[in-house]
Amino acid sequence: MKIAGDGNLKIQMDMGDRLRKRGHFEVFSAVIYALFLREVNTRFSSGTLGYFWVIFEPLMQIAIFVTVKLALFGSSSNMDYALFITVGFIAFNLFRHIVDRSMSAFNSNRGLYAYKQVKPIDGLIARVLVEILISVIIALIFLLVALYMGRDIGVENLGMVLFGFLWLVVFAFGFGLFIAVIGVFFDSFLKVIKLILSPLMFISAVFYPMQNLPQSLQNILYFNPLAHFIEMIHSNFFFELDGHFIDYDYILFWTLTPLYFGLFFYRKLEKRIISK
Amino acid sequence: MIELINVTKYFKTPKGRKYILKDVSFTIPSNLNVGIVGKNGAGKSTLMRMLGQIEFPNSGKIVSNKSFSWVMGVGGGFQNNMTGRANVKFVCRIYGKSKEEIRRAIEFVKEFSELGDYFDMPIRTYSSGMKSRLTFGLSLAFDFDYLLIDETLSVGDARFRKKSKDALMRKIEQCNVLLVSHDMGTLRQICDVGIVAHNAKLHYFDNIDEAIDMYKEINS
After folding, report:
1. Per the CB < 8 Å rule, is B94 touching A115?
2. Angle (deg, nearest 10), helices A120-148 and A50-73
3. Among A124, A102, A103, A108, which residue's Cα sits nearest to residue A31?
4. Cβ B112–A1 below 8 Å, yes or no?
5. Is residue A265 part of a domain?
6. Which of A:2-41 have CB within 8 Å of B?
7. Do residues A62 and A207 lie in contact, with contact meaning Cβ atoms separated by under 8 Å?
């Protein structure tokens, strides 16, 4: 019997795309790009309802809270409340999804660590990028819908809004990285974090402006860094809101501390995460 | 050339450290095909994984300026929820292949691995033989200095084993192989020199037959 016809072997010999020596950054970006495409593919492959959930989740959140607000308080203020909630949930979901997806990032790419180019943190970065992409698309869709409905979208300070989102991403990345690294070695840590994060939606100024709350409540919510971020985005978006609640030093501390310790422990433990 | 310098590798167990390698230093000269033998648990696979840089010594280091493939082991090295095609694309991308090169690689791997419709099914539906065919076929699409093969040549039916071996014989005209196997025939046919992993040490032999003799002695 003739094994593997000669044609076959010829292809194989021509396959010789000599492996070039590549720089660290070239390898890194190739890996991130490959992981990014893989994430997008698994999230949005047919049969997983990926597209549906991405739109449906914020839609439900907004619908529920707008309804509740109208039922309880009527449409009193002159601020566009639907728009306020939409902006709040886009920011909140961005943080929440980055953190959620970070928690499982190290384990869900485990099979790919067989290739030495793929480091655990690459999968996490790819997931953050996917979440950013999803947020941008969602934001654009909602913006177009709002414009179509004839809403007036005047942003007070677009630059600061975008800066707020960018800073929020860095915060979410650092926080996600930190808990992901710790979570690799302490399973129960992730469960505790999930428990702590579950009421987060209600204490993060997502569907109410801080200035409408009594001072005593503001003083308590002050300790939640996410409330500062969402307040920062809100107050730069809407002319009606001031940003006196926001303590930039406090959120800078909350950005740098998890990021520093996350990177520090990651560097120490990377090899153990790979071969675990 | 592959140089091991004071390499120690252990795993922590409830009973203390289980040494896979203890202060091992030696050099594997270039342009040789190396067979690695040893009892189960002697650290053959760990050695391969260290050469593939996905496992790391506890102390000491492994130095080489050669390029190594990923470790072609039984079952490992794939993301189960991705299809065969997606896996091939992924690996090509991380090695920096262009679109055109990826297209050719997919064509080649699909043909070589004879997976048929399974090529577009998730890896979790594959048998271990099918996984081996995919990973081996894929490795042929690259020019590594060393192929790291852990047992995979002995998976699959006789016809495909023969096909793989023939393909490997052609391939090693341009590159070398580090081969873990329990099949002495295959080792003799492909390898020039041998390493016996035994009692946390590696024993190097200039001739694969001597390595096999020592391995047989250990086993008897």
Report:
1. yes
2. 50
3. A124
4. no
5. yes
6. 3-4, 8-9, 11-13, 15-20, 22, 26-27, 30-31, 33-34, 37-38, 41
7. no
Closest CA to A262 of A110, A99, A131: A99
Alpha helical stretches, state H, chain B: 44-51, 84-94, 99-113, 128-139, 158-171, 184-190, 208-219
Partners of residue B104 in chain A, C-beta under 8 Å: 11, 15
The set of residues, in sequence order, having a beta carbon less than 8 Å from that of A40 and lying 6+ positions away, is: A130, A133
Q: Which of residues 55-94 of B touch A (CB under 8 A)?
A: 55-56, 67, 70-71, 76-82, 86, 89-91, 93-94
Query: What per-residue confidence (pLDDT) applies to B75?
Result: 58
For A125-180, the pLDDT digits (tens) are 999 999 999 999 999 999 999 889 888 888 899 999 999 999 999 999 999 999 99
pTM for the model: 0.88
Shortest CB distance from B93 goes to which of A18, A34, A109? A34
Q: Please report which helix (H) or strand (E) contains residue B39, including its range.
A: none
Handedness of CA A79, A83, A85, A91 (dihedral sign): negative
A17 within some domain: no
Distance CA A142, CA B91 (A): 37
ipTM of the complex: 0.89
| Both structure tokens of A209 | 């402006």
Number of structural domains found in chain A: 1
Domains in chain B (CATH in brackets) are: 2-219 (3.40.50.300)
Q: Range of A95's domain?
A: 24-274
Note whether residue A14 is domain-resident: no
Residue A2 has pLDDT above 60, yes or no: no
Find the residue in A nearest to B79 (Cα): A111
